[in-house]
From TrEMBL:
CDD domains: cpPDZ_CPP-like (cd06782), Peptidase_S41_CPP (cd07560). InterPro entries: ClpP/crotonase-like_dom_sf, CtpA/B_N, PDZ, PDZ_6, PDZ_sf, Peptidase_S41A, Peptidoglycan-bd-like, PGBD-like_sf. Keywords: Hydrolase, Protease, Serine protease. GO terms for cellular component: outer membrane-bounded periplasmic space. Residues 120-188 form the PDZ domain. This is S41 family peptidase. It comes from Candidatus Atopostipes pullistercoris. One of its GO terms (biological process) is proteolysis. GO terms for molecular function: endopeptidase activity; serine-type peptidase activity. Belongs to the peptidase S41A family. PANTHER family: CARBOXY-TERMINAL PROCESSING PROTEASE CTPA, TAIL-SPECIFIC PROTEASE. PROSITE patterns: PDZ.
C-alpha cells in the first residue's frame, strides 16, 4: 500500500459492517459495527463469526415457533380479514412485510431490523464491493436519523456533515415515520445525483445538498509525520474483512522506513467485524491476555476472548498512542479497550458508546433479520454501552471544527439575521477576516466576503455564489486539517 497524506487520503473509503446495508449505501449507514459475525452494528453502523447466518428453522429456534392455535392465530386472522374484506385489494406480501418490520420495531432496539430482499441484496453488495451514496454511518434516533460519522473524504464529509447531526428530511420527505432502511433508500442513489438533506445541529436547522458518488472500499491509510521521521500515522477507517491485512501492511511499511512510534487513529470509525477488531487488537495484546468479552442470554458469565496465535502471529513492539472521538464506535471501542488494558494511552474525546452485538438470520426467500443477540465488554470487563470510553488525555478540537459548511443554496441579504448568517460570519472569522459580533448580514460581512474573494481569485461581488461557498468550505476544511489539535498533542507526547 502506498503512503497517503493524512490530510489528503483520496476518495477511497472503507465500509463498515453494519449496516452494511446502511452504511454503505448511503453510505449513510447506520451505526457501526456488526459485532462479529455477527456484526458490530454503525456511526455505523455487530460476534465471532464472519457474516454469520443462522437457520431460522433449526433446533435453536424450534421451541419458539408458534402454530395457528397459539399467539399467531390473531395475526393469521387479521391477515385473512384484510385480504378478504378490506374495501380495496391488498398485496399480502406487503402486509406480511409490514408485520415483520413491526415485530422488529416492537423490540425498541434501533439495531434490530427486518431486511427484505432488496435490503438484503444491498447489504451483501455493500459488504463485497463499492457503493453509491453520500458516505456516512447513521442510526435511527427517535424521529430523526442520526449521523454517527461521515466517512473520510466522502461526499458527506465534503459537504460538512458531522457526528451527531440529525437528518430531519430527505428531499423534502420527513424521516420521522421511516425505518432506518427506508431512510437509507431515500438517501442513497446514482453517482452524480444530488440529495437535499434538512439537518438539525444543536438548536439550528439548515438544508444541505450532497452530491452522491461511488465510494471504493479502502480501510487503512498511513504516512510518516513530516517533521518527525520516526513517528508514523495509521488511520483505520473501519473494521472490514481486509482491514487486518491492511493494518499489518501499514505498520510493516512504516517500520521498514525507520518508524518506531505510531499514532493509530480510529476517530470517526463506526466499527465493523468483531473478528477483525480482535485480530487488530491481537497485534498489541500479549498472548493469553484478554482482548474483549461477549455475553448472550445463554451465558451465565461473560466469555473471555484472549489474544493468541489464532488471530495472527505479529506483535507490535514500538510505542503507540490511539486517537478516538465521539464517532469512534463498536469495534473501535473494542480496540480502544484492548489497547488501554496494556497501557497504550488514548487521546481525544469520549467515544460513541456502542456495546451490543448483532447477528443476522436468514428468514428464507432472501429475507433476513438483523437482531441484537448479546453485548460485549472491554478487556477489563466494563460495558461501555451509551457511555463510551473516556480518553486518558482529553483533547478537544478547535471550535471552528464544529462549524457547518456554507451552502450556496442559502440566500444572504443585507440586514438578514439568522443562524446561517451567524455560521457564515464564524467561518469568515475563523479564516482571519474581520466581521462584527452580531448574527446580522451587515457591511462588515459583505466586506469580509469581498476580501475572501479577492484572496482566492474569485468574482468580487460580496455575495455567496457556488464558487465562493465551495472555496469557503475548502478553506475551512484545510484550516481544520492543518490544526488537528488531537493529532498534534499525540505527536508531542510520543516523540
Amino acid at each position: 500500500m502506498s503512503n497517503q497524506s493524512k490530510n489528503n487520503k483520496g476518495f477511497n473509503i472503507s465500509k463498515t459492517t453494519y449496516i452494511l446495508t446502511l452504511i454503505f449505501a448511503l453510505l449513510i449507514g447506520a451505526t457501526g459495527a456488526y459485532i462479529g459475525g455477527n456484526y458490530f452494528s454503525n456511526p455505523a453502523n455487530e460476534s465471532d463469526e464472519t457474516l454469520n447466518e443462522l437457520d431460522s428453522e433449526s433446533d435453536e429456534y424450534a421451541q419458539y415457533l408458534l402454530d395457528d392455535s397459539d399467539e399467531l392465530s390473531s395475526v393469521n386472522k387479521m391477515l385473512a380479514i384484510l385480504q378478504s374484506s378490506y374495501y380495496e385489494e391488498l398485496d399480502s406480501e406487503v402486509l406480511i412485510e409490514g408485520a415483520l418490520e413491526g415485530m422488529a420495531k416492537a423490540t425498541g432496539d434501533p439495531y434490530t431490523e427486518y431486511l427484505n430482499e432488496q435490503e438484503t441484496t444491498s447489504f451483501e453488495e455493500d459488504v463485497s464491493g463499492s457503493f453509491q451514496g453520500i458516505g456516512a454511518e447513521v442510526m435511527k434516533d427517535g424521529e430523526y436519523v442520526r449521523i454517527i460519522s461521515p466517512i473520510t473524504n466522502s461526499p458527506a464529509e465534503e459537504a460538512g456533515l458531522q457526528p451527531n447531526d440529525f437528518i430531519v428530511e430527505v428531499d423534502g420527505e420527513s424521516v420521522a415515520d421511516l425505518t432506518i432502511n427506508e431512510a437509507v433508500e431515500l438517501i442513497r442513489g446514482p453517482e452524480g445525483s444530488d440529495v437535499e438533506l434538512l439537518i438539525q445541529r444543536g438548536d439550528n436547522q439548515f438544508t444541505l445538498s450532497v452530491t452522491r458518488a461511488t465510494i471504493p472500499v479502502e480501510t487503512v491509510f498511513h504516512e510518516i509525520d513530516e517533521e518527525n521521521p520516526t513517528v508514523g500515522y495509521v488511520n483505520i477507517v473501519n473494521f472490514n474483512m481486509p482491514t487486518y491485512e491492511e493494518t499489518l501492511e501499514a505498520i510493516q511499511d512504516l517500520e521498514e522506513q525507520g518508524v518506531s512510534k505510531i499514532i493509530f487513529d480510529v476517530r470517526g470509525n463506526p466499527g465493523g467485524l468483531l473478528t477483525t477488531a480482535i485480530e487488530i487488537s491481537n497485534i498489541f495484546v500479549p498472548n493469553g491476555e484478554p482482548i474483549t468479552m461477549t455475553q448472550s442470554r445463554e451465558d451465565d458469565e461473560p466469555v473471555v476472548l484472549e489474544a493468541s496465535e489464532e488471530y495472527g502471529d505479529y506483535k507490535y513492539e514500538g510505542e503507540a498512542i490511539l486517537l478516538v472521538d465521539e464517532g469512534s464506535a463498536s469495534a473501535s471501542e473494542i480496540l480502544a479497550g484492548a489497547m488501554r488494558s496494556v497501557g497504550i494511552p488514548i487521546y481525544g474525546t469520549t467515544t460513541f458508546g456502542k456495546g451490543t452485538v448483532q447477528s443476522v438470520v436468514d428468514l428464507g426467500d432472501l429475507d433476513e433479520l438483523k437482531f441484537t443477540s448479546g453485548k460485549w465488554l472491554t478487556a477489563e470487563g466494563d460495558w461501555i454501552n451509551e457511555k463510551g470510553i473516556e480518553p486518558d488525555v482529553v483533547v478537544e478540537r478547535p471550535e471552528y471544527a464544529q462549524l457547518f459548511v456554507v451552502s450556496p443554496s442559502d440566500t444572504f441579504k443585507t440586514g438578514q439575521a439568522s443562524s446561517e448568517v451567524s455560521n457564515l460570519k464564524s467561518v469568515l472569522q475563523a479564516l482571519g477576516y474581520n466581521v462584527s459580533d452580531s448574527n446580522v448580514f451587515d457591511d462588515s460581512t459583505q466586506e469580509a466576503i469581498r476580501s475572501f474573494q479577492e484572496d482566492h481569485d474569485l468574482n468580487v461581488d460580496g455575495t455567496i455564489t457556488n464558487d465562493t461557498a465551495r472555496a469557503l468550505t475548502d478553506a475551512l476544511r484545510t484550516k481544520i486539517d492543518e490544526n488537528d489539535t488531537q493529532y498534534q498533542e499525540a505527536v508531542k507526547a510520543i516523540k
